[in-house]
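Budget justification, computational time. The allocation requested in the original proposal was used primarily to generate structure tokens for proteins on the priority list. As evidence of use, we reproduce two of the resulting records. The first is shown immediately below.
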Amino acid sequence: MESHEKAIPHLQRSLKDSKAINKHNLIGASLYNLGNCYYKMKEYDKAAEYIEQAVSLYENDKSDLLPHTLFTLTQIYFKMKDIEKAFILYKKGIEKAQVINDDVLVAEFNYLKALYIDSIDKRTVYRTFSVLKDNVMYPDLEELALDTANYCKEIGQYENSTTFFDVMVDARIQIQRGECLYEI
């Protein structure tokens, strides 16, 4: 419901309680959710701090959640303009996504490279959007299209920005129609 500030105290309590009972899967989820809240609030330093802890925990536990968590951390570092660290995470994350045969996550990692490394490789960006549409993942499509539009605006590519805002609006319409799968 986009009330991230209100969620923080509840997530901190969840983290504290998870640590008290020493449940790694709950600790990891709490760390990830705290990081994701800070990410949505554009507090990237705090977001990275929590997500890095989740990555470390998931690596130690060999969790299936590691590739998705690496994707979020990669996104954060690209937004922080730490391209070197983001690219290292990209390579690690796409490898993990390929190992588990997650075509959607592979496409999303390729999207990050296309946007931030390959100077907006539109073919790859649209290929990723197509994969998301084919998998009825409109919330992910909406988020990535908005990120793309904002990034294009930031670097002065206003025509591309407008095009990607249109993609975001189309995804939002599909969500409102109920044509989507939310992550659980």
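The second record produced under the same allocation is shown here.
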Amino acid sequence: MMAKDIQEQVLERLGSLIDDELGASLQELGLVGPVSSRLRRVSAQLYYVGGAPEVAQRLQAEADAAVAELGSSVTVELLPLDPAGQAQLRERLMTPEMLEARTTRTPVFSLPGSTARVIGVSSGKGGVGKSSVTANMAAELARRGRRVGILDADVYGFSIPKLLGLTSMPRVIDDLILPPKAFGVKVMSLGFFVEEDTPVIWRGPMLHKTIEQFLVDVLWGELDYLLVDMPPGTGDVALSLQQFLPRSEIFVVTTPQSAAVRVAQRSALAAKKLKLPVRGVIENMSAFVTPEGERYAIFGSGGGARLAGDLGVELLGEVPLTMALREGGDQGIPAVIGAASDLASESLRELVDRLESLGPVRRYRSDLKVQAK
């Protein structure tokens, strides 16, 4: 009887462990194996979805800690989930929306019932800090309890994994990709599959297929926001995103200097030609602020406001360049998390306030008419 009680406790404790990337308990996912008792020793098995070695190491540590109070006679063995088990888990995770998306090769974010806001963060040229802004915006939204994902579509200059401190390969369940999480943000990037110093030399069709796979074959789950870190310019990836995510809202990042503003304006006008609404402008590196609080407008001033005026949209924020912002990017810890009191972090929080206050873009269907009686 005592052994049975212990077995039940072991099952309960192991089953209540949460797989953060899947957002469910191991019991709900069917990953708790048999628990047996022999000669006053209790043995349990857990199954895990393969990936980087640290995935199994972390789960083993969590399992050992969960049963530690039951005594040293309890041991937990980890086993990789076999192909049949992966196929069963995949079916358990698939929602009707995901089945439709995979059948039609249409992202769930483009299906009629989706409530996720798709935020395309764009720039005309590289080097304006677009990815840093994206990573910090996402981390701040997640800190507020929003369900957030980042699609790193900057396939030639991917940097989101590094900015968020992600180094592990995504796990794969059968043919379903699990996006790694950092600071509550789900991330998918080509940077997980290509060595950091390896150049990506691909033609348009290969890029198009990669973006499609990242949108359709990744288990994003239900999101409030999908932030898309777009590549600079108006090339193949921008066209693919317009095709896959026609409900995107575009926010343009620029520095104050005139050269950056002119190029950013071309990017915004290209988005409008693709029928993607430009909702606002973000001025990054508005000034360099020293640790002592001195401000230097090293890239000039007023460029973001001029661009917003020319486009007829709101200037959502002016983010200064600070040491904490730069250091956070190098360390893989967004400034809004690691340096919350920094001036750049304050500006980024205000930027997110304005982003949320804008609300999703209103869309009208010309085929629907209201007839007066």
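A brief technical remark on that second record: The two ends are 76 Å apart (CA to CA).
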